[in-house]
Amino acid sequence: MSTNSILINYIGYPNELFNLSPDNGLATLAACLMEKGHKTTILDYSTVDTIKRLFPYQYEDKMKSLVGKIMLQKKQGIEPDKSDLDSFYKLNEEINEYQKQKVLEIAEEINQFISKNRINFVGFKLWTGAGFDGSMIIAKEIKRKNPKIPIFAGGPHIDWFNEMVFDVTDVFDALAYGEGEETIVGLAEYVEQKAKLCDIPNLIYRENGKITTTLMKRIEDLNKIPAPNYDEDVYPAMGNNQKIKIALIEESRGCPNHCSFCIHFVKSGRKYRTMDPKIVVDRIEVQTNKYGMKAFRFAGSNPPHWLAKDISDEILKRKLKIIFSAFAHIRGIKKDYFEALRRSGCCALGFGIESGSSKILRESMNKRFTKEHIKETIKMCKESGISAIASFIVPAPLETEETKKETFDLIVEAKPDSTVVFFPGIVLGTEWEKNEKKYGFEINDKKEVFKKMMTYKENSLAPSVLFLPFSYYNLNGKSFKVIVEETAEFVKDLKKNNIVTQIFDQIFLIARILNENVQEFQNKTIGYLRSGSYEEIKRIVGKVNNMQ
Q: Are the C-beta atoms of residues 227 and 179 closer than 8 Å to each other?
């Protein structure tokens, strides 16, 4: 006996253009199942059509009018009128209810697919916020109509919240944390009654009212992981220009760094695990020739420099005409690294810098590079012809006005092609979370706060500053609301100094394909997504796909 499953990706309304990219994680899990003789279908709802389906067109004018009034009052330093705020939150609830009904329609379609195709089990990739909320609704409907079908869940949301997910819902029979390639095959064997849950790695499940977590296991040889399967009969959303054909290419896992705010090394380990450069480029060729994807992004959060250069050399050796972006590290990069990447097709690199203050880098971030490293690396990157995207966390834990000014001055001096600024977020399992007081965080009821975080969501019609429904934390003696406002003010000040902000490397990649100015392209696409301009987004996606 073999199984027939569906793997579901629901993130809510796709509010970023790169949300429309193919999901390489699910495509890889599908390949793992099929390699063992199982059948599966990926139902991905992060598509162009979902924009049209979920956007609340009938509420658009009223919401824009309210938001305009409230934001004008805030800009003038006036406390927004209570009746306007009450109307805003009431309208937001109506939008949430409207979108819930649309999610129920999706659930009904999935139930029909289950009945028609005799599905044995269902897997969800979970995303925090609207994605988790909507996935719970869909899963409950599946359980209601198909009570005997096992429902499993994995993805970033499980890595962030682990067993706390069971505090919010009991609809999932087991949760997969960490790396899922071996786990998904084990779950298929469990459905076949060939394996027990306790023997499958990377699982969290309930047994006799008690939560059990199985041992973590990482894939040591990445070369043995099958290539992602983007065939339309397996991944229907890959057809009809529903996805923007810019996929992730996996080349490495693990990170030897131990940044205080980051969860990555907890999931992937502190030792690099790398794929053979020739196998990486073999997969690039398959994506180019078979799937028409000549643009991609490396998946590794911190690929080692030697690996990126070896991959670039292999691309050049095969004379492939491709374009890509990636993450990179600040320390230890030489000029020939950038030159090799540019010649092989790299158009943008993202750097996690976080601060321009030596004190903050050392004490708050546990970063092991200096301001001179930052300036030198960004300069080399730009001079090579690759766009440099630098991310920062402002205000940081232990931040002072002096250290914040150091960060501001460094950005103005180094002038990355884009500066992306985040407010500080706490994730379970990080140093910030485990030693919150050391870093100046105050969280009154951690369990309750993280429960609320799981389903925290915004809508596409209003700026995020209006969505602060609960007190996340206090930091440096300031409320979360004040922290978010401080981040926004920092971004405004950068813009006043002609610094390009909040544009990620994926947008540089897409703008380069279309030969458009990146700032104009960013502004245009944000406008289209916030107004539900389905035809315009469809046109952009089609154009990107046709130009490859």
A: no
pLDDT at position 462: 62
pLDDT at residue 223, rounded to an integer: 97
Q: Domain residues of the chain, as ranges?
A: 4-54+97-213, 60-95, 246-427+482-514
CA distance 493 to 404: 12
Closest CA to 504 of 424, 423, 421, 396: 421
pLDDT, position 433? 93
d(CA 503, CA 521): 10
Q: What DSSP line would sit under 348-409, residue for residue?
A: EEEEEEE-S-HHHHHHTS-----HHHHHHHHHHHHHTTPEEEEEEESSPTT--HHHHHHHHH
pLDDT at 469: 52
The span from the CA of 532 to the CA of 273, in Å, is 41
Per the omega criterion (within 30 degrees of 0), is the bond before 395 cis? yes
Which portions of the chain are predicted below pLDDT 70?
A: 458-470
Residue 258 and residue 140: Cα distance in Å, rounded? 38
| Integer Cα distance of 189 and 114 in angstroms | 19
For 93, the token pair is: 């609830």
Give the span between the Cα atoms of 323 and 505, in whole angstroms: 12
Helix or strand holding residue 279 (H, E):
helix 277-289
Residue 149, pLDDT score:
97
Among 526, 459, 462, 467, CA closest to 102? 459
CATH number for the region 246-427+482-514 comes to 3.20.20.70
In sign, the C-alpha dihedral spanning 49, 51, 54, 60 is negative
For residue 355 the two structure tokens come to 């601060």
Contact 440, 426 (CB under 8 A): no
What separation in angstroms does the CA of 61 have from each of 56, 58, 85, 318, 462? 10, 8, 16, 53, 12
CATH class for domain 4-54+97-213? alpha beta
What DSSP line would sit under 485-536, residue for residue? HHHHHHHHHHHHTT--BS--HHHHHHHHHHT--HHHHHHHHHHHHHTT-HHH
The residue with tokens 């500053």 is: 465
Residue listed under structure tokens 């009212």:
209
Distance CA 482, CA 77 (A): 14
Whole-Å CA distances, 257 to 355, 375, 430: 16, 20, 13
Q: What is the pLDDT of residue 120?
A: 97
Token look-up 């076949």 returns 192
The whole-angstrom separation of Cα 498 and Cα 411 is 11
Query: Which residues does 9 contact at the CB level (< 8 Å), separation at least 6?
Result: 23, 26, 42, 43, 44, 45, 46, 124, 125
Q: Which two tokens stand for residue 377?
A: 């690396």
Quote the pLDDT of residue 546. 93
Q: What is the DSSP letter of 396?
A: P
